[in-house]
Each structure stands twice: as C-alpha cells, then as structure tokens.
Specification:
- The protein contains 13 helices and 27 strands.
- It is α+β, with helices and mostly antiparallel strands.
- A hairpin with a 3-residue loop joins strand 5 and strand 6.
Length: 684
C-alpha cells in the first residue's frame, strides 16, 4: 500500500473477524527498539476513556478486542505483534489506531525497514505498508482500522510526531499527568507488597522520556480524521548525578491481583512436610502419563483463568469468547483408524466456533511429522482453524520443527502454530508476578500451574538438550578437526539459538520486562545464512556468541561460550557519561558496584584503542583512579565481565552446558546489571 491508501478487509479474505498486525523495524547497531500502542476511538476521534489506550503496561482489553502479543526477533531487527478481534470491538468504537514510539531521545529516522503488515486469522499476510520518510519523529502512527457501515477497512497512515507518545496520546484525548510528586507517590504505592487477597497494582506507564515542541514531520500530512498536533510541555533535570528527565505520562488504572514476592511463613513442623498441591506430579513415571497430565492441566487452567487462556490463544488468531477444552478426543481419519489428538480447544464467539487440535510432547520427545500431518488433514476436512504443537523445543524463524504439506486445492486453510513449555511458564509468571489477574483464585491456579511445570517429574522444563551434534562438535574443536561447512556445527548453532531464546523467556518472566536476543546481520540476510555464518565462525574460533537486550538496562548483555577453554563470559559495555570528569565517572561506577562480585573484571574503553586499563573490582575499589588511561586519552565507556566454568554435558543436568549458561546469566544480571540502573526514565 501507499501512504494514505485504504482497502476493505472483506475484499482480501473471508476470515478477517480477527487479524494480526505486525510492526517491523531494523537497526544497524542491533539495539534499536520501539514500543507499540493501540488506541480505540469513538466517532469524535477521541478515546472514550484512558482505558482505551493499550501499551506495554496495559497490554490487553478485557473483552479480547485488543491484545499486545509482544516482540519476536527477526533476521534484521524485531517484530511486534498485535491481535485485534474486530468482532469483539465495542459498537461505539469507530477507529483503531496502531502506533509505535521510541524513548530516551531516540528517533525513528535511526531505524530502517519500518513496516506494518496485516494477516488474517489463519496467519496469511493480506497487506503491507512501508514508511520511507521517517526522520526526527519519536512516535509514529503506522495505520488504522476504521468502520464503514458493517465493514472494516485499513488505512496506511504513516504520520510522525516529534513530541513522542505524549503528544500523540494528548491528541486523541488521553489525560496526561504532569504532577511529578503524584507520579512518585503512585510509583511508591505500586512497589509495596501486600497479601494476595489484598494486592492491587496501579499500572502507571511512561508516555515518553521527553516531550519536545510538536511540529509536523516533513511531508507528513495526516489523513482525514487525524487531529492537528498540539504542543506538549517538557520537564527535566540537569547535572551529572541526576536521573533522566521524566515526561508527563498517560495513566491507566487497572486493579488486579499479583502474588507477593516474599512467601508466607510455612506452618509445617519440618522441611520434610510437603504442601498439598492441586496438580500432584510426584507419581508420574512414564512419558505417556506425563503428556496426558500436562495437556489436561494446561487446558483446564486456560479455561478457568480467562486472561491466561486468551493470552495463549490470541497469538494463534483465536477470538475472545467462551472457551472449552477437551483431551483424548477421538476423530475419524478417512478409512483409517480414528486419531486421538492430545487436546482440542474451542472458542465460541457470536455463535461461531474457532477450533484447534493440540499435539503435546514432554521430556526430550520430539514432534513427529507424520502425526502432525494427520492432524492437519483432519482439521482441514472438518473445517477447524488451527493445529497447535506443544513441546520443550523452542521454535525458530526459518527452522520449522516439523515439515508438513498443505493441499493448495483445499479452500479451507489450517494454520500450524508451535508453543514451547518455556513460553507457557513465561506467560503464567508474567501475569501473576507483574501484570496481575482478575482475582485471587486465578492467581492461585496459575501458581499451581507454575509449580507443576517446574517440577522435575512433569517433563515440561523447556529446551534441555543441545542435541547429538554437541559432543562431536566439541571434540572436533578440541582436536582441530572441525571444518567449515560441517552440518553438525550448524545444528549446534540452532540449538544455541533455541537456548538463548529460552533464556530470554525465563529472564523476562522473572523481571517483568522485555528481554530479546539481538541478532546482528546485514540487511536482507535470512536466518539460514546467518546461522551458517555463525557455524563457520564456531569452526574457526571455537566460540558461540549471543547478545540480550533487556528493557531499561544500561547496555547489551553479551554471552560468549568458549568451547576451547571451557569458559563462559558474560559482559556489558556501558557508555561514558556526557558530562563530568573521568575520575568522577570511575568513582561513581565503583559506588554502583558496591554489591557486585569481587572477581568482576572492569576494563576501560579508550577511543582509538583496543582497550585501556583493566583489573578486578576487588583491586580497583580502593583506587578508582587506576581505571583512568595515561596521557589523558578519551574514555568512551567501560566493559564489565564475569567468567565462569562451562558445563560439558549436552543436557540440563547440574554439570550440563544449558544449566551453566542459565547460572551465568542469572549471576551476572543480579550481581552486575541490576546495580547499574536504567539508561532511561521508563519504569515497568
């Protein structure tokens, strides 16, 4: 589509009652990011209330009409997905505006490949719109859906705001809080922990780190219905030790129950007493038992906790409605014996059914292509919408877990989706620890589900095996016989990608923040080519590399697994402050790292040189001046690193490689990254 163009959805597909919007961008440095937001507008072009503004602290509508599905990494950047159930949109909502914003002074002109795509319920892409004229704007309206009679249409907008999300929100009627004292009071209130049955969370979000005087983006004339931009005042502080400027913020209050961080004191006489559990798991011994129990436990909790069930199924194009789930359903399969999928999910909305078959695997069991193919054929013949596979494997872009054939002659299309047990645990933990659920019973059910998934007998531990190629590749690196082009090296790189993706899910669930892998590659490089290049580098250097972008962290967390030395290195580079003196920077850094491990390596980064002075934190604490380079060379930043022995086994045992990576990331984040503070004023 071109800017200003519009098209009716009914002309593109017969299945547009629920759609998925994807916002994409890329960054040359690998650390560019933006946040999506959605606004529901009435006939006057304004929100009905602040609750019609959906963003990272208010990600879902109670009626299921809007749900932010979060980010996924792509070969060139990241993709942020939004599920819109148009059949659930309230009758007085005339337009749905889809936007994105940047923070910390970042502008959209620094990003490339700005694009929005729209797909139908089955995942088939229907349209796309690329923004070519982004410059100094810190917020952008990518597009909007609007009603024309009984039909929904999409308009390619591409309008930018220099004033960021604060200016955009103000234009559409969002109340902006400019009382700094009130902000601080609200933030302190949300930080207090209270018992489960009394817990509430006042979800307050930052609109933008700063709000400059608004001016139209060059050549960006808004389409009909877009209000004129207005000026938004700014508020900031100066000084080397001062916090970043905090902008006025839209406020959305949602009272929800979250679990307290500190567990209540147990009444057990001794540690051998086990608490009674809703889902007992200690007696499970066989794979079939584990698969049956895991499927039943998950599907039952999805029906009893609507916000959890909706969170999982929205990503698969399911509408918001009454959900029922079933296990061990017998379905005819032509003239052959009936097939028994592990589960069935049905959602009813306005008299229409959305149905998905579920195939589950636990432990190290892999999905079978022929089995999934049978379910795809059954779903197509019976008019079902999707087949969902669920296992410990983590799906990767460009590397399908199973190969299935789709009969193009069939009019009805069936979507194939994959869900990992790590993703299930991530969503459950995010809800009960950070975002909150509807009531105490829902929080308790999700807590029981988490306990079940994390039990050693459940078989739902997530990705836990580096694969059969791990040992031969390690041996080939040790004796220098591993050659470039060896498929086993590519297999190890794929396993490494799955492990890093799972680390992001686990850490993000614990922190309640977005954690994504950074994938640096030339624009236009597909995932297969990127992994092949990483495999060649593994053969040459004997190292695996990864980077994690943690929301609000002061830098990118880098991980290097050196298979030659058996060491894991976790590190972060933090830039030098813009103001002050080098000695003040060194002293401040030492103060920030007062609780960090003594064996932390600190290296000063010097302009035009590979590195400057370095030493352990234990040695530098009494003499911060030792961090300064001689001759007054310009300091560009500091690199902080921790080293740890690497597990050799391919599995998730105590001595395994996967466990050692998890432990290294946890130690580095809690011991180092958490003490450095945020590089922006955003508060999760």
């Amino acid at each position: 589509m071109i800017k200003g163009g519009n098209v009716g959805l009914a002309a593109l597909s017969e299945d547009t009652g629920s759609v998925i919007l994807s916002l994409n961008w890329s960054s040359a440095t690998g650390d560019g990011d933006a946040d999506v937001s959605v606004l529901l507008l009435n006939g006057d072009g304004k929100v009905r209330s602040d609750a019609d503004f959906y963003f990272y602290n208010n990600p879902a509508a109670a009626d299921g009409s809007v749900q932010l599905l979060g980010k996924t990494p792509t070969a060139e950047g990241s993709e942020d997905r939004i599920s819109l159930d148009l059949t659930a949109a309230p009758a007085d909502v005339e337009r749905i505006v889809v936007a994105a914003s940047r923070y910390g002074g970042a502008r959209f002109g620094d990003l490339g490949d700005l694009r929005v795509t729209l797909a139908d319920r089955g995942g088939e892409t229907l349209l796309g719109f690329s923004i070519e004229d982004a410059d100094v704007e810190s917020a952008f309206i990518f597009g909007e859906l609007y009603r024309r009679g009984e039909e929904w249409k999409f308009r390619a907008v591409g309008q930018g705001y220099e004033s960021g999300l604060a200016g955009l929100a103000t234009d559409f009627g969002i109340d902006i809080d400019d009382d700094a004292a009130d902000e601080e009071t609200a933030d302190e209130a949300t930080a207090d922990e209270v018992p489960v049955d009394e817990a509430t969370a006042d979800k307050v979000a930052d609109a933008a780190p700063e709000a400059a005087e608004q001016a139209p983006a060059p050549g960006a004339e808004g389409p009909p219905g877009i209000p004129a931009r207005t000026a938004a005042p700014t508020a900031g502080v100066t000084g080397e030790e001062s916090a970043p400027a905090t902008a006025r913020r839209p406020r959305t209050a949602k009272k929800k129950v979250t679990l307290p961080k500190v567990a209540r004191k147990s009444l057990a006489e001794n540690e051998s007493w086990r608490a009674a559990r809703l889902f007992p798991v200690s007696s499970l011994r066989y794979d079939r038992e584990r698969e049956t129990r895991a499927t039943s436990v998950l599907l039952s909790v999805m029906t009893q906790v609507p916000e959890f069930g909706r969170r999982l199924t929205a990503a698969f194009g399911a509408p918001a409605g009454r959900m029922e789930t079933f296990t061990e359903v017998s379905l005819p399969h032509g003239g052959n014996a009936p097939k028994r999928p592990d589960g069935v999910i049905r959602v009813e909305r306005a008299g229409k059914l959305w149905t998905a078959l579920v195939e589950t695997k636990t432990n190290g069991n892999t999905l079978k292509s022929e089995q999934v193919q049978d379910y795809m054929d059954i779903a197509a013949r019976r008019g079902y919408e999707a087949v969902i596979t669920l296992s410990n494997d983590v799906a990767l872009e460009g590397s399908p877990l199973v190969d299935v054939k789709v009969d193009g002659r069939r009019k009805h299309k069936v979507a194939l989706w994959h869900l990992s047990w790590a993703e299930v645990a991530h969503h459950a933990q995010t809800l009960i620890r950070h975002e909150g659920v509807g009531n105490t019973a829902h929080a308790w059910l999700l807590q029981e589900l988490l306990h079940y998934l994390q039990h050693e007998n459940s078989g739902c531990h997530g990705f836990q095996n580096m694969g059969p190629a791990w040992v031969p590749v390690r041996n080939g690196i040790d004796n220098e016989t591993l050659c470039q082009g060896d498929q086993r090296a590519t297999d190890v790189v794929e396993s490494w990608d799955r492990l890093i993706r799972q680390v992001c899910l686990r850490l993000g669930g614990e922190l309640g923040q977005k954690v994504l892998p950074v994938q640096r590659a030339r624009r236009g490089t597909d995932q297969g080519s990127r992994r092949a290049a990483m495999a060649d580098r593994l053969c040459e250097e004997g190292r695996l590399y990864a980077e994690l972008r943690i929301e609000g962290a002061s830098g990118i967390l880098a991980i290097v697994a050196d298979l030659r030395t058996g060491k894991l290195r976790t590190s972060i580079e933090i830039p030098a402050p813009d103001q002050g003196y080098p000695l003040s920077w060194a002293k401040r850094l030492v103060r920030q790292l007062a609780e960090a491990p003594a064996d932390l390596h600190v290296e000063t980064l010097v302009e035009g040189q590979g590195g400057g002075p370095r030493g352990t934190l234990e040695r530098l604490r009494p003499e911060p001046a030792d961090m300064l380079p001689k001759g007054g060379a310009r300091i560009t930043g500091f690199r902080l690193s921790l080293f740890k022995g690497m597990g050799s086994a391919r599995g998730n045992a105590e001595s395994g490689f996967i466990r050692s990576v998890d432990d290294a990331v946890d130690r580095f984040h809690s011991g180092v990254v958490a003490h450095l503070g945020s590089r922006t004023a955003r508060r999760p």
